[in-house]
Amino acid sequence: MQTTNYIGLNCEDKALLDIAERALVNAYNPYSKIYFGGATIDRAGKIFTASNFACSSSTSNLCAERSLVAVANAQGSRELVKMALILSNSNPDDDDVVYTPCGLCRQLLQEITVITGENLELIISSQDKSKITMTSIKEMLPLAYER
Could you give the CA distance from residue 76 to residue 70 in angstroms, rounded to a whole number? Predict the structure, then answer.
């Protein structure tokens, strides 16, 4: 796990994070007012975007990560290699906070590694891009549930 900022990213990672940031416009969460945008790229170089969608029954919320997998799958792609996530929050004190994927998302992202046989790389950014965590799903979920 590595911590950096936007300036420390390579051009490819900056581009994927910028696309994730643009996906924030479609995020919906009137309850916590924490919005997530995401972008993922598959082996063929195709990019997919998604955002979170919350409802009053929080157990039914769709996180951006799970939405990304669903969007890619619906378009015939399961071989995801990298994912960028960024948040937007109305609290200015949280400008430099990095929110990592929830446990449910981690387990679903682990399934991508089962499909591809490779570790899924993650770029997880604070709202102001001053703190970016570079990690992988295997690093975030070392003891994933497996059948």
Answer: 10
